[in-house]
């Protein structure tokens, strides 16, 4: 926390990269690595979406932590016996300590673990999804979209940076502020940026170019959690997402696109925030709402044109065993 009561996110991640040339000692290989995620986490949800859009399921396995955790890290409590079946560990922390026995920072998802050694490779979530797009191309499915096309990278980076500070991280700045002034500063920046995004998306289907890009993935995971969590839990309550006509239609358009809504687990999302953040919700009561069926209503965004997957195609069905549980989606 800042001295003025503002929330300051620790952004010192493990920056080792898995690359095609293996320059950091970790070359891209099929069946060597395991992506560890939690469906509840917006940063991890990005990696789940990108992995699915690119069709990397056959070569990059995925371990799914439960929605809650304690101060010692995310656990594999959804697996039989509470043990990840590939890594053989109960806590993600064990993979971090296997590489760095005195690792001093938070244990975060998404993370990629080197299966042969059991050691974490990286938890640098912004770079992780970019590398899935650029470094894992040898294993992309036929028809995989270009989520980070070279001609648009500067604009994608610019938009994503603004969205990160004011929206992705902005909701946390509101929720964890410990002074009125810091809260209101973050609140004003959040809704100013949401208004800016509404204006930007009024006449264009996607944030950058005419196809889905990394920028859309990064915005979507915050919008998907907005009414269920951030509006009430984090006091981001000028209006709900459903009260932003343009942003709500944009979010529904993405939600109804394969890879987005079919990776979103609203039950786990709510359990995570309302059970883990005891300082904000000491009772541990999880809200019953909001109604979710409206995520599947017509959005009309197709009238703006655009090609969701560019020259590519939609991904196929969700991989067996990776489906969002019945009753957890919209």
From TrEMBL:
PANTHER family: GLUTATHIONE S-TRANSFERASE OMEGA-LIKE 1-RELATED, GLUTATHIONYL-HYDROQUINONE REDUCTASE. Residues 318-330 have a biased composition (Low complexity). Residues 303-330 are annotated as: Disordered. Glutathione binds at residue 74. GO terms for molecular function: glutathione transferase activity. The record marks 230, 273 as: Lowers pKa of active site Cys. The active site is at 41 (nucleophile), 172 (proton donor/acceptor). InterPro entries: Glutathione-S-Trfase_C-like, Glutathione-S-Trfase_C_sf, Glutathione_S-Trfase, GST_Omega-like_C, GST_Omega/GSH, Thioredoxin-like_sf. Keywords: Transferase. One of its GO terms (cellular component) is cytoplasm. Residues 149-276 form the GST C-terminal domain. This is Putative glutathione S-transferase. Pfam families: GST_C_2 (PF13410).
